[in-house]
Amino acid sequence: MGDTNGQVVAGGNGKGNRLDQLNLPTDVLIDKETDSLIICDWGNRRVVRWSRRSGTTQGEILIDNIWCYGLAMDDQRYLYISDTDKDEVRRYQIGDKNGTIVTGGNGEGAGLNQLNWPNYIFVDQQQTAYVSDGDNHHVMKWNKGAEEGIVVAGGQGYGNALTQLYRPQGLFVDTLGTIYVADSGNHRVMRWPNGAKQGTVIVGGNGYGKEANQFGSPTGLSFDRHGNLYVVDHWNNRVQRFSIE
């Protein structure tokens, strides 16, 4: 903490499709087993892995020909990847190029077995997959092996009421099943308790802007072990930290 300068750990050689480049990366996770970063390299339609060891100058392609947007990894090291073109989430073993459909896969749509621009995902210890279904303006929960999902946040069309979301993106679910979601089109982060019909605004919700209580389309979120919330504030080109009660 306190560093004013970051360190480049992947890419940094301009936009491009070489193995030492990235193009519009959208998500990243740390694979502790191999001490590496797994990155959705969206603009290059591939998922790449970069070792965290010093001296690493390029990545390796794990999966290609995929409009990957969000990534998650479960306790058994299965990789879950959302595909914004095929409107599905697949689960992969590391090294597997094809994967298995976990959610969606029935074309673009608003049915309970469909998705429309799935982006960020969260997978819990029971291998339940939660998906921010961007253009359906809701968050869906798919139990392991389920043929269709359950709407667990939003689902009342797009809007800014407490029962609604507008292009949800970043997603986190705690052990109680409480959902935290970056409601990007409404410039706010919402919390939806398990089974609730409406959420509460925990940060933002004060319109588009650059003030400390405002966002410009929040896209990603995560928590640290002290319960601080970090939000990627897209159009303001910053990351904000909040203490959440």
UniProtKB/TrEMBL annotation:
Species of the source: Rotaria sordida
Keyword annotations of the record: Repeat
GO molecular function, one term: ubiquitin protein ligase activity
Keyword hit for Repeat: yes
SUPFAM superfamilies reported in the protein's UniProt record: YWTD domain
InterPro entries in UniProt: 6-blade_b-propeller_TolB-like, NHL_repeat, TRIM-NHL_E3_ligases
GO BP annotations, alphabetical order: proteasome-mediated ubiquitin-dependent protein catabolic process; protein polyubiquitination
NHL repeats: 164-189, 208-245
Gene3D superfamilies attached to this UniProt entry: 2.40.10.500, TolB, C-terminal domain
Protein name: Uncharacterized protein
PANTHER family registered for this protein in UniProt: E3 UBIQUITIN-PROTEIN LIGASE NHLRC1-RELATED, PROTEIN LIN-41
